[in-house]
Design a protein that fits this description.
Subcellular location: Cytoplasm
Bound molecules: adenosine-5'-triphosphate, magnesium ion
Pfam families: HGTP_anticodon, tRNA-synt_2b, tRNA_edit
CATH superfamily of the largest domain: Bira Bifunctional Protein, Domain 2
Helix content: 25-40%
GO biological process, one term: prolyl-tRNA aminoacylation
Number of domains: 3
CATH architecture of the largest domain: 2-Layer Sandwich
Organism: Eiseniibacteriota bacterium
GO molecular function: aminoacyl-tRNA deacylase activity; ATP binding; proline-tRNA ligase activity
Number of strands: 31
Oligomer: single chain
Length: 575
């Protein structure tokens, strides 16, 4: 490609609305433009990278036995009503209505559509396992679209689905997909960790996220040397039993206007960990009281899983008053109205004296004990792990790091196939429910994640495997005939050899050309200048290391080919 002809609008300044380096660099390097909040045009340079990521994903999915297909983006609401997600998916779901007043969904994910296809065609155990995938635009009305394509409302995803006779067959496919995902991200030149994750609204049990390690990541990861790694939404921690305390009588204490953990703990002079935080949620129509220690955060993802509802919502002040008899800020589990389901976090200890709300205005209770004052009927892991917590497996203090979730794999089980009656006949002729897995990769998010990991103060430093071009040829002064000649001939020769070349044939100052080259981040740059040509050499510069080698003009094409091929081999699939 000749830069003089390319639609490659680079910018000197960062866009005002960009926080993340990847977002800034994608806009500045001419990869991306915003059309509306969370909605972007991917320009030619960005599209080249996107397609390379797509192709790597495609190759690895095909290698793992996947077959690519294309499901509709527009889906009738009836399918989503069958699984209950029309109601449960919430506001992230883009809903549409046609001229006949029929409701539709713009696909945020495609379990319904694929299960509908499969139930109509799979008859026998002989048709299983089956692994289908697509690479397609997804729509999610994110509450806070931000960070460019990292969290967009319209984005590209690879979504795959597998169908099985039983859990054992699913487990084998799940392992294959896990390996395939690892291969994808390795080939994209990324450093990543695989973590145990929360299954969110999709449901199902075992699932893992692929996290690209980056300071800017939205996800918190807890890990320890034994190999345990989990996102903060699901990380467990070891609960160390605290030494038992002497029983003391349940005591009422006036706490005028003190509502928050901080206010109550400083007013009473007790540590926040001795308080119990009691929060009323609604899972659909059903109220629940969730109780966690005052020094821990209630984890909404864990709560959602325990309640089997994708998005429990906090009760309003009026609802709390009606349910508990006390105002917001004074809720507690003691003497709570019969029938209000109460769940205590596993880290709430037996044989300890706690402070809780008194379910009356300006009232707290002291010396609240499990068993005696609160019936600990239901216990669950409801709180978020925090710094200093110990690994649930080995007991070591866990390490905290940040990551970008680029991929997610789930063992779904029969959640969708049961709701949608997707069945097969086993060898004995019995009708059985198909067991499913689901697997997603954020294609456009992966592009951004590569930039988050591979950039410096001057711009992007692409790995060869996903770089928009392999080599950037920069003739320093295009009005110098020999310079132009050498550049043109190198350009033609490399193109012919199948190397992807960007030629900066613009009549620009050398400084501006080099700045653009660094910004765009093509891994190899060939600089052709008058001075070098006098010595019969051109300069080869490695974008990542900055290393410069002087190469005789006659060897330049050969040397570039060698380097490109070597680098691509390193990032190629290893069978
Ligand atoms: P997140 O927790 O980041 O919202 P998710 O759990 O909703 O992600 P999945 O439903 O598992 O995501 O989707 C599969 C993949 O699609 C994710 O791993 C991520 O890489 C990508 N993805 C999800 N939401 C977005 C988005 N709004 N913009 C870009 N990519 C996304
Ligand atoms: Mg999401």
């Amino acid at each position: 490609m000749r830069l003089s002809r390319a639609f490659l609008p680079t910018l000197k300044e960062d866009p005002a609305d960009a926080e993340l380096v990847s977002h800034k660099l994608m806009v500045r390097s001419g990869m991306l433009r915003k059309l509306a909040a969370g909605v972007y045009t991917i320009l030619p340079l960005g599209w080249r990278v996107t397609r390379k990521v797509e192709q790597i994903v495609r190759e690895e999915m095909d290698r793992a036995g996947g077959q690519e297909l294309r499901l509709p983006i527009l889906m009738p609401a009836e399918l989503w009503q069958e699984t209950g997600r029309w109601e449960k998916y919430g506001k992230e779901l883009f809903r549409e209505r046609d001229r006949h007043d029929r409701d539709y969904v713009l696909g945020p994910t495609h379990e319904e559509a694929i299960t509908d296809l499969v139930r109509n065609h799979i008859r026998s155990y002989r048709d299983l396992p089956l692994n289908l995938y697509q690479i397609q635009t997804k729509f999610r009305d994110e509450i806070r679209p931000r960070f460019g394509v990292m969290r967009a409302r319209e984005f590209l995803m690879k979504d795959g689905y597998s169908f099985h006779t039983d859990e054992a067959q699913l487990a084998a496919s799940y392992e294959e997909m896990r390996d395939a995902y690892a291969a994808v991200f390795r080939r994209c030149g990324l450093e990543f960790v695989i973590v145990e994750a929360d299954s969110g609204a999709i449901g199902g049990d075992v699932n893992h996220e692929f996290m690209v390690t980056a300071e800017s990541g939205e996800s918190l990861i807890f890990s320890s040397a034994c190999g345990y790694a989990a996102s903060s939404e699901s990380a467990k921690f070891r609960v160390e039993p605290a030494p038992p305390e002497k029983e003391a009588p349940l005591t009422k204490r006036e706490t005028p206007g003190r509502k928050t953990v901080e206010e109550v703990s400083s007013f009473l002079g007790v540590e926040p960990g001795r308080l119990l935080k009691s929060l009323v949620f609604f899972a659909g129509p059903d109220p629940v009281l969730a109780v966690v220690p005052g020094d821990r955060e209630l984890n909404e993802a864990k709560l959602a899983r325990v309640l089997g509802h994708p998005a429990p919502r906090l009760a309003t002040a009026e609802e709390i008053e009606k349910l508990t008899g006390g105002p917001l800020g004074f809720t507690g589990p003691v003497g709570i109205r019969d029938g209000l389901r109460t769940i205590l976090d596993v880290s709430v200890q037996e044989n300890r004296n706690y402070v809780t709300g008194g379910n009356a205005p300006d009232l707290h209770l002291l010396n609240v004990r499990l068993g005696r004052d609160v019936e600990a009927r239901e216990r669950a892991d409801l709180s978020t792990a925090r710094e200093g917590d110990r690994c649930p497996r080995c007991g070591d203090v866990m390490r905290l790091s940040r990551g970008i979730e680029v991929g997610h794999i789930f063992k779904l089980g029969t959640k969708y196939s049961e709701a949608m009656r997707a069945t097969y006949l086993d060898a004995e002729g019995n009708e059985r429910i198909i067991v499913m897995g689901t697997y997603g990769i954020g294609i456009t998010r992966t592009v951004a994640a590569v930039i988050e990991q591979l950039h410096d103060e001057n711009g992007i430093a692409w790995p060869f495997s996903v770089a928009p071009y392999h080599v950037h040829v920069v003739p320093v002064n295009v009005s110098h005939p020999e310079t132009r000649e050498v550049a043109e001939s190198l350009y033609a020769g490399l193109e012919k050899a199948g190397i992807e070349v960007l030629l900066d044939d613009r009549d620009e100052r050398p400084g501006a050309k080099f700045k653009d080259a660094d910004l765009i981040g093509v891994p190899l740059r060939v600089t052709i200048g008058e001075r070098g040509l006098k010595d019969g050499v051109v300069e080869l510069r490695d974008r990542k290391t900055g290393q410069v080698d002087r190469i005789p003009v006659g060897n330049a094409a050969g040397e570039v080919r060698k380097r490109v091929e070597e680098a691509l081999r390193k990032l190629s699939p290893s069978d």
